[in-house]
Hints:
By secondary structure, the chain is α/β, with parallel strands linked by helices. The protein has one domain (2-193): Maf protein, CATH 3.90.950. Helices cover 39% and strands 26% of the residues. It is built from 8 helices and 7 strands, in the order αβαβαββαββααβαα. Strands 1, 2, 3, 4, 5, 6 and 7 form a 7-stranded mixed sheet that branches. It is elongated, with a radius of gyration of 17 Å. 32% of the residues are buried.
Amino acid sequence: MLDKLFKEYAIVLGSNSPRRKQFLQELGIPFVVRASDIDESYPEELQAGEITDFIAIAKSEAIALESDNEILITSDTTVWNNNQSLGKPADRQEAYEMIKSISGKEHEVISSVCLRNKNKTRIFNCITKVTFSELSDEVIYYYIDNYKPFDKAGAYGIQEWIGLVGIEKIDGSYTNIVGLPTTELVQELIQFIKE
Length: 195
């Protein structure tokens, strides 16, 4: 089934994220990138995975499919904390406030993935629970100033320095926290081409 997936289908990654590109490369999946910039705002009443589902679908709908054998993958990730979605921080102060709000606590990282070809669309999401140790202001500002996490939901990248010094516990998929739940993605891709 994987041979069929890799040989008979053209995978299109609808993202410029270097982390998502790297995961597909490590999975051995040939792909091309065809991304588009969209307005990532969403209706206020949406909660948790509804938000990432909405944005992943919007990203998918903004990209044209060029042939019948293409499968488009789009994704969106957020940090869900205290019934709030922590997206990408606008500046240093907002990054500090986001990291401070998850310091010493458990939060959820939610990624939604949309698979689409010319005939159908499939959406799924994955939730991972992450617990940070108590982080001092010195540690938080050191991370922000040296790693500039302004392109990351919740103002942190677990694969960076902050993940090495600040993460106490992970319950669920590690790759989901980075931005693409790879185990679930492969399972869902196989199901998608079987249907």
